[in-house]
Amino acid sequence: MTTTTDAIIVGGGSSGTAIQCALARAGIGRTVLLERGVLAGGPTGRSPAILRQQYGHAELVRMAQFGIDYFHSWQEHSSGNCDYRRIPLLAVAGEENLAAFDTTLEIMRECGARVEPIAPADLGRWIPGARHDDVLRAAIEPDAGYCDPHATALSFAAQARTHGAQLMQGVEVLDLLRSDGRVCGVRTATGDILAPIVILAAGPWTPMLAARAGVTLPIRTVRHSVAQLLRPAATPAMEVMLADYINGIYFRPEGADQCLAGSLRGADTADVADPDRFDEGISEDVFVELAQRMVHRVPDWTELGDGGGWSSLFDVTPDAYPLIGPVEQLPGLYVAAGLSGHGFKLCPAIAHMITAHITGQASRFDLALFSPERFAAGKPIVGRASYHYRTPLLA
Fold first, then answer.
1. Please, are residues 236 and 256 in contact by the beta-carbon 8 Å criterion?
2. DSSP string, 305-338
3. Are residues 156 and 135 in the same domain?
4. How many independent structural domains does the chain possess?
5. What is the 3-state composition of the chain as percent helix, strand, coil, each rounded to the nearest 5?
6. Are residues 307 and 228 part of one domain?
């Protein structure tokens, strides 16, 4: 059976559902979102869903600001509840990444983001018992926060449906259809769906789908593990998130007595993975390593408990910046992928950019910067700050 619609979105994570919602709100209500499993069943559902503005490129800072404002005013434009929680992000740096950290804060201030320096000796005010002898610089980002990624995707989808959009779960896209040198729809096991616009927002599965239409996207898929740590009963509850650029760890609270922790070190997420066949658990070695880094920063947490954890996937580009926008070699095809683990916080901005291009409206952001063809054109994105870890990991 063949059906027709105005636009097809492939992928039911935060980006795909945000794009469909934005298109619907812009008046393009005849859209179909196809999800091979269930909404937020891929990397979105395993994301810590942290909202922060610390980036080494001004455009990403502005996109992250747009996202924070969007989530903060959620009820004004979306159905349901994203379970948004505003909570400060404490960031610390030592000698190794001091220059990158200072540049990051400078970029944030240039973009109007609120970031407040604090004395390293005052870390204990934010995280009781925090170690500070190796900290040369510290800052608080008061407008940071996090959401429930499942609730967010479901809410985007619910809002889109109120404008006539259609959602199909459990439907895998087998191929992209082409005619007269442009995309004209997709093929599924239940039939073809025709549309002049196809948007690939399928995360790690995006490059494989694009390749079936002869489009090469420079995206590799890697594993990223998240540990669920149980806060020792005798320690105070957490009222802050942490980005530790000394140990290369981030964490945020989860419920009353837990926190989620993951690595900021690129070397820890370098294992290429098959998105259809990868270990979704967290190894004992990785869990212990993350726990040790946590205890290094907060020695009082020596008796923290094991709440388990999981592994997800990052779809990463060579410059670690997203691919967003139209694919020049196949008109009608759009991409929102290669998000390198930052997709959740950027999804409102990504949806805005693609919707603005499709509807011919002005965008707040530089879509050309994120062109899927930029690597072939020799124009990778170069940020002003990047973090590197040359020292050995903690024993």
1. no
2. EEEEEEEEEEEE-TTS--EEEE-TTSTTEEEEE-
3. no
4. 2
5. 30, 25, 45
6. yes
- Residue 330 sits in a domain of what CATH number? 3.50.50.60
Q: What is the pTM of this model?
A: 0.96
The answer to whether 13 and 40 have CB atoms below 8 angstroms apart is: yes
69-128: per-residue pLDDT in tens? 999 999 888 878 999 999 999 999 999 999 999 999 999 999 999 999 999 999 999 999
To 5 degrees, how large is the angle CA 141–CA 145–CA 150? 155
Query: Domain span at residue 346?
Result: 2-48+149-218+319-370
Residue 170 token pair: 């459990």
pLDDT digits (tens, 9 = 90+) for 288-306: 999 999 999 999 999 999 9
Let me know: does 68 contact 53? Beta carbons within 8 Å.
yes
Residues 347 and 302 in one domain: no
Q: Give every CB contact of residue 2 below 8 A, 6+ residues apart in sequence.
A: 191, 192, 193, 194
Q: Do residues 248 and 279 share a domain?
A: yes
Q: Are residues 154 and 288 in the same domain?
A: no
Helices and strands, number each (H, E), in the chain: 8, 21
Is 176 in a helix, a strand, or coil? strand
Q: How far is CA 197 from CA 235, 275, 332, in A?
A: 53, 25, 5
Question: Could you give the strand order of the β-sheet that contains 85-86, starting from the edge strand earlier in sequence?
Answer: 50-51, 145-146, 85-86
* Residues 322-357 pLDDT 10s: 999 999 999 999 999 999 999 999 999 999 999 999
Residue 390's pLDDT band (boundaries 50, 70, 90)?
confident
Q: What's the CATH number where 129 sits? A: 3.30.9.10
CA atoms 20, 24, 26, 29: torsion sign: positive
